[in-house]
Each structure stands twice: as structure tokens, then as C-alpha cells.
Amino acid sequence: MTIAENTKTAVAGKTLVIAEKPSVAQDIVRALTPVAGKFEKHDEHFENDAYVVSSAVGHLLEIQAPEAYDVKRGKWSFAHLPVIPPHFDLKPVDKTKSRLNAVVKLAKRKDVGQLINACDAGREGELIFRLIEQYAGGAKPLDKPVSRLWLQSMTPQAIRDGFNALRSNTQMQPLADAARCRSEADWLVGINGTRAMTAFNSRDGGFFLTTVGRVQTPTLSVVVEREELIRGFVSRDYWEIHASFAAQAGDYPAKWFNPAWKKEADDPEKKADRVWTQQEAQAIADAVRGQQATVTEESKPTTQASPLLFDLTSLQREANGKFGFSAKTTLSIAQSLYERHKALTYPRTDSRALPEDYVPVVKQTFEMLANSGMRHLAPHALTALNNNYIRPSKRIFDNSKVSDHFAIIPTLQAPGELSEAEQKLYDLVVKRFLAVFFPSAEYQVTTRISKALEHHFKTEGKVLVKPGWLAIYGKEAADEVADAKDGDKGQSLVPVAPGEKVNTESVDPKGLKTRPPARYSEATLLGAMEGAGKTVEDDELRQAMQEKGLGTPATRASIIEGLISEKYMLREGRELIPTAKAFQLMTLLRGLGVEELSKAELTGEWEYKLSQMEQGKLSRAAFMAEIAAMTEHIVKKAKEYDRDTVPGNYATLNSPCPNCGGVVKENYRRYACTGADGHSEGCGFSFGKTPAGRTFELAEVEQFLRDKKIGPLDGFRSKAGWPFTAEMVIKFDEEAKNYKLEFDFGDDKKGEETGELVDFGEQTSLGACPKCGAAVFEHGKNYVCEKSVPTDAQPTPSCDFKTGQIILQQPIEREQMTKLLSTGKTDLLDKFVSMRTRRNFKAMLVWDATADKVNFEFAPSKFPPRKTAAAPLTRAAVASKKTAASPGGARATGTKATKPAAKKTAAKTPRKAPAAGAGSTPSAALAAVIGAEPIARAQVIKKLWDYIKANNLQDATNKRAINADAKLLAVFGQPQVSMFELAGIVGKHLG
Fold first, then answer.
1. What amino acid positions are annotated as catalytic residues?
2. What is the C-alpha to C-alpha distance for residues 630 and 749, in angstroms, rounded to an integer?
3. pTM of the predicted model over 0.90
4. Cβ neighbours of residue 596 closer than 8 Å, sequence gap 6 or more
5. Which residues, 6 or more positions from 522, have their beta carbon under 8 angstroms from its beta carbon?
């Protein structure tokens, strides 16, 4: 039904439009208003005579097993596995219950006669809507007609066009079936696989969470296999022979090569220009030095076309390589440019082509860019229009290469004010869009062979004749034609006359070493995930994965982030490094014979079958029956494994046994003494590889055995599943007459009990103690007043101020504690976890003078504003606060502050001046980074951090250090500062 038809027939019932996000709902309302009438805004929806428009906030519901089949974590044993429920119930996502209730209430309204699914165009968008529809119906279906709005762009005209071409519910049913099957199958394999592997790893006691998943585990396998190659790599010496030849017109470089060389499949390190002994390399150099050489050369023109348009994965790879953006960051920025700014088309696409009827739209887009005033882009758009570059081409316009969505390109709407990161990504997309229509770059490529005696030397010259699309990139294009000095890369060559003999001026053997393959960065891992189908042997599965790879463009970023959060990988600079936990999982899957969980074939098989389902060639029931059988197989393999250890490639440690000096070796579960010979039962000393669910890295174990202590380390989990941080020690147990591992939680009172003095001499104070005004330092796992522990200056403690460095799982960084001490409160922190409800919550830490301790203050949006100290905690301020009540603090501790007391304080206390820096004018140097408007100091720090993160200026080796770019150099006055210096530096730049 078109917009006009729907508006006319509104008396038969209104149409409820459900978008995926509130911003999209607002865009739909703006687009419909000119043709369907003005909308009235309500709390959770918009409404006019014909339409009610509301939205989800992403997924509002998640599937779960019915209560009878639900296995709580405390019962994760093989006795309760596998879990294969006959159907799936729906559970509201806790954070968005109110939004779900509002949407369901609208769907059930008697005056709502039909629904339009306006969620994102794709499998996930289909699933989000279908689950809401199912939940709204309850025991019996909602039974209201459903249509599908399929949007590629968020411009008003594109939205109106979409409403005039709605798809029917019948058309979308195969996609809905595939979406549900993918979700339920992921649940079955993920839940059963995770619980089976966790049960296996927890058989000796404790709780060792071992997560697996259909996409995350094969992705992890790719990274682990690369790391195994790196660790097993043995570097070899080789030599190259570099020469310089003198012609009449000048000198040119060249490199020796063997023209008879043929590639060897079993040794990829062997190449035509490598010699494997120094003697041979030196002999060649000595033989040709000073000799005359004959020259032959071949010169031919070549062209280089621009890269294809971006899909999400190629955009994420490019942004990671150029700007260091993570895949998650790139997706977030692209989503903002699509939803908020309407400047880009739908970003979650796996297509790099445009529809064949899109040529007129492309011309309009070029016209918009040419007239946009964007001086770095407009001239190129104008050039393309004047030279008629925008023409139909199968390389760009190809319906067969467009699935649900087409490539990411700019829309007809020029963006407004963009952040620096948004501008970078927008420019990246627009330049690629412009470049793909420009002519190819043209080069003249010359290959010159200089032959001295019987030895051949090669020189390659590459001269840019016509820049073509490279003109769009200007100076960036210089990388395309690097002026190389090694003699075998692109460069401009001096001419050699026909028949001219040249002289071998200098010849030098250059000793080099073979290098292991590089570790994955996010850019290269995204490429590996996208191209995972290339490793699949089955033709049909490979074809299915050609379009999807491992995961979808929209989910790959979250898969990588999930592996990092589960401690399977670490992000160091731009490298992704698998942890010991990752190696242990791969060893387990191989040993149990369930390697299918780590292979891309599993995803290939699923994608093949899901694509068949989308085409109506496979039933939902048949697919789910196969998934249930596979789930049973995985659990059975783990349950029936009865050997003591799992075969694998285990380490022998360098550090000796602390008890007998014997050799300590690794097995699947433990590090154990194997005696002086390394092959006996040893002295009995051993400890588990995963104490409290945290897997030791090999380097950590070596340090632990050597120093008999390590830490503090994070990532431990209690038996109830709670994360904690602790130091670990190896202590001698008199009863067992052997050493054993223990946790040391760093009781800071031990100095007071033993009289041992604490030395803060090498530390920098975080600020003044709110109780006594003395200095506050880090000590153990806490921040403490220097007068709360015995020191040389004051052996007997006189203060008791102490607060944890981790509170309810929220790490309290030094800069936040410094802020608390100087202003009375921290920023809003978002990783607290309630001990009672086990839910995350956001709060600020504040100094509660009434309770005489640090307490919580909640965000104003949820609770009434609270009058908490915000001035620096000087001694005078501390003294005055002894009589003041703090409702925020009282609420956090359950202490009730009386209203009259609060009013009395408010009446007697004069209004305070704004915090230091509020409404201050930035200096010219600071204004160049954050803008020139008057601004509060706290906002300055926030804006600076946004700038630092967007430009990847945190030092790769020390995240607490910030590297200055050209703008920040003027602010910092030096190339690098620590994050703790920021507040002081900012103060100097505020008027």
C-alpha cells in the first residue's frame, strides 16, 4: 500500500511503523510529514491520522530455553547436557523493557490495523521485528497484516520511495525463517558448546568459563594458527647482491637475480634474487665488480584502475590501515554518517557494486559534490561532470553483485558539521566514489637487464604518465609510485643508448634474514574473515561463503571485540595476539575431535543452507534437526573423553621447580615437576594452568616460578562467577612439605601490624586527603592517605582514609581519583556491577562528608540532582563539610538524610562560584583543537580525549602516554605527555 492509499484508508485502522532505532523513526516522520500530514510527538512514538511511528533500540528481546530446559551456571555439568528445547521462549532485554512495553502496547491498540517492519534491511532487522511481533501476540498470534519497508538510504525521498514500494509479508517469510534459524542454531551450538567445554575444563574443581561460537571460534583459530607459524618459525640467513651501473647519462641501481630460477612449492622462502651462502654472494660481487655489462630493456605502457567501491569490510580495513580505527569504531562512525547526518548510504553491506538503474542518482550525487563548497572534493566532481566520466559500466553498476544492499556511497545530502573522525571517514568514502569513475592511472614500465659476465641484474622503472584517478588523492598518491633505491622497484631511470656498454661501479652483498609471517591486525583479520571461504574445499560451501565469509560485515567488529573481552586475544598497538587461553581451547577442540567448531566449513555449510532457505529450497524444520544432531555430537565427544590429558604441543619451562630444582613441564591442565631428568613423576610440585578461571601466559609462569610471586593480575573469577583482581604467591606448606600456589589480596594493614614502614618517596601524590589534608598515594590495591600507614615521617597512623582501585568491578583510574580529590567527584563511570542484582549501573564516586567516606552519586537523568561537594577538598572545605549532609552518598549506603537538614544547609550555604574553568575562554592553541567558545574545564578534558582517541594519539606501548600531533604540540609544548598531566596543562590554556 502506497503512502497516498494508506492516508486515504486511515479510517480502516492506523498503520504502526516500527523502526530499529529512534533516530530512524524520526527520519521516517520527517519524510512522511509533507505527504501524510503533521505528526504529534508522544513519549515513545509519533502519530498522525494515518500512521503511528515508533522504534526498538536494537534487540529488545532475546531467545532463551523454556524454564524447564534452562540450565543455570551452577549446574553446568554433563548431566544436564545437551540442552535442546522443543521451542524457544522470548525474554525481554533488561535495559530496554520499558521501550518493549511501549511498542507492544502500540501494536495491540485496537485502532492499529496493520504493521510495517521498518527495521534495518537485512537478516537481523527482520529478526528484531519478528520477535517483537511474536511477543506482542503472546499465546495467540497478533494477526495483523505486515509489510516490509526496505531502505538503502536515509534521505527523505529514499524513505518515501520505500513506502511506495513496500514488500509483502509472504515475500519476506523465507528471510524471516533464515533469521530465526541462524539465531536459534547459534544459541544451540554456542550454549551447548560453551557449557560442554566449561564442564570439561572445570572437572578438577573451580569454574573455568570456556566460550565457543560458530563464528568466534573459527576466527580465533585463524589467529592461533598464524601465531603457531610465528612461534615455530626458524629464521634463515640469505643475501642479496646490489649493484650500481654507470652509463653515459648517469648511474642507476640494480639487483642480481637468477633467470633460470623456478618457484618451489615446498619452500616459499626461496626466490630468484636470494643467495643462501655468504661465500656465493661474495663470489658474485667480486666477479662482476669493475666489469663492463651489456644492457637490454623492454618498455611498455600499463594502466591501473581505481579500487572498487567500499563495502563495510573493505571500509573497516582501509580505515584501520590509514587511521588506526578499530572495526567497531569505523562501523559506529559510518552508522552515524548514515543515520544522523544522512551523508552515506546503508553501511552494513557486503556489496561493492551499484544497481544498474542508479546512473542518474550517481550524476546527481556528483552535482551535489561539485556545488557543495567542499574545496578538497568539489573540483574533482566538477572534472568528472565536465568530462562525462559517469557512464554505465559493469565494473560499477551490476545487479548480479547487489544483494540486499549496494555499496557504501555518499547520498544526495551534503553533510553538516562533522567531527574530525567523521570527516576522515566521509572523505575516504567520497574519494573512493569519485575515483571509481575516473580514468585509470597510466604508467610507463621499463624492465632493464644488465648482464656482467654470466650474471644478470634487474632494474625496474615505473613512471606515472597520466595520474587519472590518482589525481583525487594528491600527495597520498606518492605511495603508489615510490622512488625506490633498491634497484628492483618503481623509479625513473636514466636512459641507456642502444648498444651502450655500462660499467659495474659498486657491488655489495647485503645480508638479510627471513621473517615470520606478520601477526594479524584488525585490517588483515577482517580480510581473513571475509575470505575464509577460500580455505574451504567443498565447491558449494565455498560459493556460499564467497558472499558472507566468517560472520557478516555488520557482525565482524563485534566478533573481534568479543574475543578480546573474553581474553582470547590481546590488542597491542595494531596487532592482535592470541592468549594462552586461546591456545588451550584449540588444543581441547583438536584433542576431543570436535575441530568442526574451529573450522570455516561449519559457517560455510550454514550459510549455504540458510541461503537455500531464503530461496525457499530448504525447510526450517530440516535445518534445525541437523543442528540438534550436531549439538548432540559435540556434547557426546566431550562427555565420553576419558584420558587424563589432552594431546598437544606443550612447553618445557626454563625456571626450575622451587621445591627440588627439577624440570617443570606443561600438560593440558597443569604445570608439574617432572624430576631432574624431565621424565619422572618428580617431587609432586604442581599447580593448575587456570587458577580461578584465568589462564596463565607462558611468560607469566616463568616469572612466577622465578620470583615466587606475580601480580596484581585481573581476570580471575570466583566460584560464583564474579571477576576479581589479586596477586599470587608460591608459599611453602609445612603440612604438605611442598610449595603451593596461593592468592594474596594485598591486605594493606600488614605494615601496621608488623611495624614495617611504607615508603612513598618515588610516588607522585594524587591529591589531598579529604579527611586530614595529607597526601594520597597508591598502596597495594587501594588509594590511601600517607598518614593511614606507618611511614618514616609518622610511624603511628593517625588517619584512616582508604578507597579501592577497583570498586564493584569498576577500575578507578588514577586520573579519576585525582579528580575526586580535587573536585569532590569523578566523571560518570559505567562499569559498576551491583552485588545484589548483578546488573551494570552508572554512577559518579563522590566524597560523602556526612558518612565520612567515598560513596555513589547517580546520573541526574535517573535521580533528582544531588548537592554534592564540587569544590577542591582543602582542609577548610573538609572542616565545613563535617556538618553538611549528602543525599547522594546517603542513598548509596542506605543512610537516610532528613529533608529539613538538607534544606537548612541549602539555606545557610551561599551559592558557590562555578568550578574552576567553567565558562573560561580557551587559548588560541587550545581553541584550534576544541573550538573557541567559553567552556567548563570538565568539558575541555572530555573534548580533548575525544580528539586523542579519534586520532589514535595514545602511545602504542604505553596507553597512559599521549603523543602530540601538530595541533596538540602547541597545547602541550612537548612531543609527549602523560594523561595525568592533562588537567594541569588545560588550566594554563583557560582564561
1. 346
2. 55
3. no
4. 602, 630
5. 316, 317, 320, 326, 327, 560, 574, 576
